[in-house]
Each structure stands twice: as C-alpha cells, then as structure tokens.
Design a protein that fits this description.
The complex is a heterodimer of chains A (94) and B (266). Helix content of chain A is 21%, strand content 24%. Chain A has helices at 3-8, 44-50, 65-71; strands at residues 18-22, 58-63, 76-83, 86-89. The termini of chain A are far apart. Chain B has helices at residues 20-30, 79-88, 106-114, 136-150, 170-177, 202-211, 233-242, 252-255, and strands spanning 3-8, 37-42, 69-73, 96-100, 124-128, 159-163, 183-187, 217-221. Chain B has an eight-stranded parallel sheet with strand order 1-2-3-4-5-6-7-8, with no helix packed on it. The chains are: A alpha+beta (94), B alpha/beta (266). Chain A binds chain B through residues 1-4, 6-7, 9, 12-28, 40, 43, 46, 65-66, 69-70, 72, and chain B through 46-47, 182, 185, 187, 189-192, 200, 202, 205-206, 209-210, 213-228, 232-234, 257-258, 260.
Chain lengths: 94, 266
C-alpha cells in the first residue's frame, strides 16, 4: 500500500478527518500554486484521491517552502473542505 | 480579558535591559486575573533580524494569572526570563505550550520538567525545533525534549506538533502518547542544502496509524509519488546532475518536476 492509500485506509487511520501534506505537488521553485488550475495536471489525480474518502473533511497541501527559505516568500497552499459530505470549499481558493 | 496577543516591533524593544513597553504589558497581564491565553511574538522586519533581549521587570506585588495557553514566538528564553516565568506564574492550568522560533529552549524545557508534576492539564505541545548543528548544547536540547516527551502522563498528549527534525522523537511520541493523540503534525521544512529533510516511509506511516488509532488530524511531508524513500526528489535530482554521465533515470515520475534539466527517461 502506498503513502496516500495508507492515509485513506479506514483500517490504518480509522478516525482521520483532516489531512495536511507538505510538498507533494512537485512543482519548481518558480511556480505559483494557490489555485487548482496551478496544480500540475499529472498531480491532480493524486490530490483528488485524497478527497475521495467520505469521512475526510479537510485536505490542505503546501508547496514552495524551498522558495520561502531562499527568498522570503510565503509558501503556497491549496485547500479543500467539506461539511457533512457537502462541498464547502473546492480546491480553488487560496 | 481572557486572551491577549502581543506583537512586538523589535525596533521598539531595548536590546539589553528592561523595556518600558514590556513592563507596561507585564503590568496589564498581572492585573488580568481571568487571562487564560497569552501570545507574545517578536516580529522581524523583512530580512533584518533584530537581536533583542527584553527582560521582565521584577514586579513584586502580583503573579501572572493561571494561563491555559502560552504562545511564545521569537521571544528570548534567557535564563533570567525563564527564572522569572517559573517563579511568577501559576502553571497549574497550563494546557498548551506553543514555542516558535525559539533559539534556546533547553533551559526552559529543563525548568519546565522540574515543574511537570504541576502541569496536570498539559495536553498540547507545539514546537519549532531549532536548526541543528552538533554542538553540546544541541545534544542537550535533544535529550531534554526527548525526556520531556517520555515523562509519563495520564492521559498523554492529545496534540503534538513538531516542526524541524522530528524523527528522533517519533517513536517516543507514539509509545507514550499514541493512544491519546488526536492531532499530530510532523513537518520538516524543505531545505536549500543537503542533506535534505527525511520523510516517513509508507511502512512508517502504517505503523504510525496502528500506534495512534484515535488520530483525527495528521500533517506530514510527502514526495510527489509517495514516500518510498527517505531521500527527497530535490536531493535525488542533485545527485543526477552531479553524475553528468547519466542519461536515463528509472524514477522519472519522482524526479521530473524537480529536475528541469533532466530530459531523458526510460
């Protein structure tokens, strides 16, 4: 079982409601990522998979820390939230 | 007043002695018996780092109220200030320590451990770990923090957040606090130099889940294609670039986003 599959496993993490990941988008230091459209196309299935478990209500992904350390910029992130299985925040707002 | 959040402009703090501004705030704090949450942050101005060392005034008439949450960010934990904290604060209700950008927390942790029996409500620990070298002080800090986490508690912590080199403490955390943990944040920031951060492997993540079955919130580092290795993509990328004779890479998915110069794959 891979890393993401483990996180999504009801057996491994039966009570999990919130997932926060640092660095999984794999973009270069020059790429701004604050909206879904900025997420590399081939990374979208991985991130969408994180939202597929009904009991997960919040997924936040950070990227660009290397740039923050090197140039004083804040790290970027994208956030997805649902409440009682109703989507309240799609992966589209910084 | 139940909650007080203070942001200090470093240019307004005296670098060496008791600051009138800090003394004024200190007076407000001791005159607020209902205060439960205190946050004190010393800011930075762009890339300019101020070396400030504000000291508490020796007020004799009152002690700090019994805080439930204490957040210190870049606030100097000098021996003098820590001694003041320890002598003049009621720690019996302290539930949440949050120490960020603290250069020298060793003394604070050591002193806190002396009072650990007086911390029955402590449930949550957040800490940004200092950048590590291998000095004697650093080793002392590591030993102190590990011991701090090993001290038996009933119940254990429900929330732990470590930012920096957390790997040394992970097993201790899971052994002592796994059953009670509801929130766990383990984040080692990316670095612009080698060695890169280490990340949990798939197997380590599985073990973590087994040992912390009540976890509701998790924050961890991840590679673009999962964490099958403890080495980050950028570290692998640099290895490839150094080995200029390599024209094919077998883990292209892992490398390609971090390696714009890599043009060939199987």
């Amino acid at each position: 079982m891979g890393f993401v599959e483990t996180l999504l496993s009801e057996t491994a993490f039966p009570s999990l409601r919130t997932i926060e990941l640092f660095g999984c988008l794999g973009v270069s230091d020059q790429t701004l990522v604050s909206r879904w459209s900025h997420v590399p196309t081939d990374q979208r299935p991985l991130i969408s998979k994180l939202t597929s478990r009904p009991s997960i209500n919040r997924v936040q992904i950070h990227v660009g820390e290397n740039r923050r350390l090197g140039g004083g910029y804040p790290a970027d992130w994208v956030l997805w939230e649902q409440d009682n299985r109703e989507l309240v925040r799609p992966f589209d707002h910084p | 007043m139940h909650s007080l959040h203070i942001y200090f402009d470093p240019s307004e703090l005296d670098t060496t002695k008791t600051s009138p501004l800090l003394t004024h705030i200190q007076t407000q704090i001791v005159d607020s018996p209902n205060l439960v949450e205190l946050s004190m942050k010393i800011g930075s101005l762009g890339c300019v780092i101020y070396d400030v060392d504000p000291k508490f005034a020796r007020l004799k008439r009152k002690r700090f109220p019994p805080l439930e949450k204490l957040i210190l960010e870049a606030f100097p934990l000098t021996v003098e200030n820590v001694d003041y904290w320890m002598e003049n604060m009621d720690w019996s209700q302290m539930g949440d320590f949050d120490l960020r950008a603290i250069d020298e927390p060793t003394y604070f942790l050591n002193e806190s451990m002396k009072l650990v029996g007086s911390f029955p409500q402590l449930k949550s620990l957040h800490m940004e770990l200092p950048w590590f070298g291998e000095t004697r002080d650093v080793q002392e800090f590591k030993d102190t923090l590990r011991y701090f986490l090993e001290v038996p508690r009933d119940p254990g912590f429900s929330e732990i957040s470590l930012e920096g080199g957390y790997q040394l403490y992970l097993q201790t955390i899971l052994n002592r606090h796994g059953e009670t943990l509801k929130k766990l944040r383990l984040h080692d920031p990316e670095r612009s130099y080698e060695p890169q951060r280490e990340m949990l492997s798939d197997l380590e993540l599985t073990d973590l889940g087994l040992q912390a079955p009540n976890l509701e919130e998790i924050s961890v580092d991840i590679n673009p294609t999962g964490n099958g290795s403890l080495v980050s993509p950028s570290a692998r990328c640099q290895t490839v670039i150094v080995c200029s004779g390599i024209v094919r890479a077998s883990q292209w998915d892992l490398w390609r986003h971090s390696c714009p110069r890599l043009r060939s794959h199987p």
